Every structure is written in structure tokens, then in C-alpha cells.
Predict the structure.
Amino acid sequence: MLFKLVLASLWSRRVMAMLTCTSIAISIFVLIGVEHLRLEVKNNFERTVSGVDLIVGSRTSGVNLLLFSVFKIGNPSNNIQWKTYIDIKNKNQVAWSVPLSMGDSHQGFSVIGTTDDYFEYFKFGNKQPITFAQGEPFKRLYEVVLGADIAKKLAYHLNQSLVMSHGTGQVSFTHHDDHPFKVVGILAPTGTPADQSLYIPLQSIDILHQKQPIHDEWLTEVPLGEAFQPELSAFLLGSKSKIGVLRLQRDINQFKQEPLSAILPALALRELWKIVGAVEISLRIISWLILATALICMTTMLLASMKERERELAVLRALGAKAHIIMLLIGAEALMLTLFGSFAGYLLVTVGLLLGQPILEQHFALYISPMVDLAAVGRFFVIAAVAAVLLSFIPAVLAYKNSLLSGLKQ
């Protein structure tokens, strides 16, 4: 009987009830959406680099080393000598290494000098390897591999000729026109900064800054360490034993020939996320404020409806309805409005993610799972329902006190 009364009461005020449900649905949509995006962006952020035990650069802070080596933001405080790199590479604990040399660009995108080991050992996500959407790794001096975003934004294709520029700025007044590169590979999208870089052979870094013409040789004919000993911006290391990573890090940090810094990528990523955590907190606060506003609007609607429901409540009181019956009636209405609105908000989030995920992936290289964490959704539902029931006590108490006298007068 109580359930029928609640439905009949809401139906008699269906326009107001629908508006209230809509406001709650929008607030739940924002709350769940922001929380889901926050978690997914954080997961994508922490999975930018995977399977790399140490990142080594010249002596600097861990965040700065991470920013310029992985996110291509900023510049190294100093370069690393080739001999230093070889000495560390030959340590017994080192399983593999990937040298990185930066400092040039192409239309604002970073150019990275490296070896083909980069495409074998650099991983992202859950240790997913980099793959080629088209073409293959470079094998000659004047060949370049493009990240997925660059190929898409600049509409580049295989066998196209490119010219690199000096410096890392968006605008450069020095172009290496004498050394054009041919596109031989385009990487598959990864959703990481790797999509926004160009990769050339490490030997070519020195060639770019030489005036005299140098023939396009096979890389096997110009090995590193002989004629080419480039300075490095940083390098990635993999350890033979996970237990020995900390010992290897300590040895590198105490390297006597040259001041170096070795960082654990996972720890540095979490430290960097804490720096930008203020934005995360702000978004969560705004979401909860929106939900609070919607619940207060619902309470206001219930209070406003008390005047027009005086006869209804007076009849119930005259028939012997106790205080708890009136409170249950109004509390059940608030609970039903909140649950309907919350479920509608959840549906909006699910549909929005299903429709928006391809757009985010295509335009922003951001991989957002369309599956929302049901435990978090349930937690939000419970919080909203409890808050709605508590707020409904205000109109319920007022209705019980005033309904009988004012209703009988009418």
C-alpha cells in the first residue's frame, strides 16, 4: 500500500518529479564520469612506460629526468658521454640498454636518436611492446620512423621526405635541409608520448650538424663506438634480476667518472602524479558539490509540494497514520527519486563512454575503458540514497506537524 501511495503521489506531481530526477541524473553522471575518467587517466599515466627498470640521465631531479626522457618536456641538465654509457651498459647486472639522444625537432615534435633496440625493449601499458602499423625499423642513416600521432596530424606516409630542425621549439630558424630523411615506418598508436616523436638512428644525430655531405649508408657499415660516439640525453636500462635493481641504481648514482641520476620509472610517475593531484582533488570536490546541489533541490521540491499535499496528508492523519508512516511516505519518495535519477545517470555514463571512447582514442590517443567500476557506482548510489533519506526528514517532520490542522481547515 505504501509503495502504491508513493507512486500515485509522484505521478500526480510528475513534471516536478521528472525535473528532480533529471537534476540527480546529471549530478550522478558528472560524479561517476569524473571518477572513472580520473582513474583511467591515472592508469594511462602510470602505464606510460613499462618494463623499464631504470632511466639514467645526468645529475638532476627524478621528475625532470622523467619529463624530458619519457614525456619530451624540458631539456636535460647535461649530456652523457658515450664512454660512460658503454661502461654502465657492460655492467654484469644490465640485461639490455636503449640510448636516447634529443635536441632536434620537426614542426614542434621531438626527434629522438636511438637504436632499433628501442622498438624491442620499450614497452607501455601492461608490458605491451611497440608495434608497427606500417613499414619497419630504420636500417640506413637517413631513415626515420614516425609516431602514430605525427603521421596522422601531418598526414605523412611511407617514403615521404622530411627535414629536421635544430632545437625543440615549435618554431626553428635552423633547418637541416642538407640531410633529408625518408619515412620507412609508422608506429601503431600507444596512447603515450611515444606517439608524438620521430625516431632516427643514433648515428644520424652527429650527421645532422655536419656541413659536409655524407652518403646514406647501411647502419651495419657505420657501427656505433667507432666513427660515431654521440653524446646521450638519457638511456633506459633493464636489469637481469629485479632484486638487483636497487643495487644497480645505487652504483649509477655513485658513478665517479660522471655525475648521473638513475630513477625507477614507476616511483617517478607516482611522484609526478602527486604534483598534478590538486586538479584531481578539485574535480572530485566539484562533482560532490553538484550532487549535494541536486539533493538540496530535491529537498526544496518536497518542501514546496507540502502546501499542495496538505489535504492528502490530512486524510492520512485522520485515518490514523502515525508519524513514522508520514515520514516513510516522504522518505520513500525521496529514495525513489534518487534511485531513478542515479540509475539514469549511470546509463548516461555508460552510453557516453561507449559513444565517446572511439573519439577520445582517435583525437586524443586516450584509451578509456567503457566499463565503469560497479563497486564505485554502488558506493555512490548508497551515499546518494542515504543523503536523500536524511534530507527528507526535514519536509517529513514539517508535514506531520502541519498537515492535520491546515488540511482540516481547508
